[in-house]
Amino acid sequence: MAADQPTIVATSGGIRRxxxxxxxxxxxxxxxxxxSGVSGRRPRLCHLGTAGGDQRWRNALLDEAxxxxxxxxxxxxxxPMPGTDDPLGLLLDQDVVWxxxxxVANLLSLWRLHGLDDVFAEVWRAGVVxxxxxxxxxxxxxxxxxxxxxxxxxxxxxGLALLPYANGVHYDSEPQRRPLFQRLVADGTLPDGxxxxxxxGLVYRGTELAGAVTEVRxxxxxxxxxxxxxxxxxxxxxxxxxxxx
Length: 245
Fold this sequence. Notes:
By secondary structure, the chain is α/β, with parallel strands linked by helices. It has a single domain (7-240), classed as Rossmann fold, CATH 3.40.50. 27% of the residues lie in helices and 29% in strands. The strands form 3 sheets. It has an 8-stranded mixed sheet with strand order 5-4-6-7-1-12-13-16, sandwiched between helices. A 6-stranded mixed sheet has the order 9-8-10-11-14-15. It has a two-stranded antiparallel ribbon with strand order 2-3. The two termini are 30 Å apart. The relative contact order is 0.17.
């Protein structure tokens, strides 16, 4: 199965502490699976931990989360070398691709080095749902704010740009995020865009925002647009997903 049109779920969430496991897949991931249209079998999800350096212990935690959640999990590692000679084939065989957080600058560099920028564009057009958290959210957009270079956030402007917008993550939990994102939109460094509080995701069908969803009640998404020399922010009330906290 594949989504009926190119779909991206860009989030500040998706993984949470488990009840009997260290972590579990949270409602945002399950919503991405639902959007893929899979039925009659266990959904298949490929995790990419490039932004965190392909940490095998993290992969193991997500394998366990997959077993608990009824999801077949595989990983596309790039360290010390790509784990397959056919990344396109691997990804096309998935229902969902989920990209973890970390350094979005390093992620983008390595993906381009290995030709994954073109691969992801093809996979997206084929209807595999692309998703992720933090760096795994910004990467699909034109850019956003990042701590890839140090504790003081800066702009990243070389995202894959499957979506023609800026993206702000951790909007309510990291004090530098909101003012910097607004300033970068206001001065034209970034285009108009969308931001998410922790626990919230943006759902894009094609290149249009279809809406926002949340796994944490009371959180929101935001549309931020340039108006003159300033940025204007509008709150987007998200749909509360089943299982939300």
